[in-house]
Amino acid sequence: MREHMVKFYRDVVGFSEYKDLEAVTFLKISDDLKGPPQVIALLDNRIPSNGPGEPRFDGHSVNQSPVHHIAFSLAKHDFEIEKKRFVDLGQEIRSAT
User: Fold this and answer.
1) Which helix (H) or strand (E) holds 76?
2) Could you tell me the CA-to-CA distances from 86 to 24, 63, 75 in Å, in that order?
3) d(Cα 26, Cα 15) in Å, to the nearest integer?
4) Among the four 1, 10, 45, 52, which has the fewest Cβ within 10 Å?
5) Is residue 49 a contact partner of residue 2, using CB atoms and an 8 Å limit?
6) Is residue 55, in this structure, part of any structural domain at all?
7) What is the DSSP letter of 82?
8) What is the spatial distance between Cα 69 and Cα 56, in angstroms, rounded to a whole number?
């Protein structure tokens, strides 16, 4: 599953791979800020990330997860260009407007 997420964020969204470890892949979002780059971490829930002997992640419940969605900023003039690019790549676009 993580491989599919990495492919989507790399090939469709355009993030670059920053660091790839056994249980997590970090993708660089931006280096606009001073200090370390902004990254998103994609975890492989088949591999325990807490260390040996620690409880294994058993999935999460959409009813209990604090994550509702992930949003990224985009300049208004780039929106239609990116929307068309996503559609051309076969991605479904859903919008409230």
Assistant:
1) helix 76-88
2) 25, 29, 16
3) 10
4) 52
5) no
6) yes
7) H
8) 24
pTM of the model: 0.65
Confidence of residue 34 (pLDDT cuts 50, 70, 90): confident
Q: Decide: residue 15, CB within 10 A, 0-12 exposed, 13-18 middle, 19+ buried.
A: buried
Question: What does the pLDDT average to over 45-54?
Answer: 65
Question: How many domains are there within the chain?
Answer: 1
Task: Classify residue 38: in a domain, yes or no.
Answer: yes
Count the neighbouring beta carbons within 10 Å of the beta carbon of residue 49.
Answer: 15
Closest of 7, 1, 5, 14 to residue 85, by C-alpha: 14
Residue 36 banded pLDDT, cuts 50, 70, 90: confident
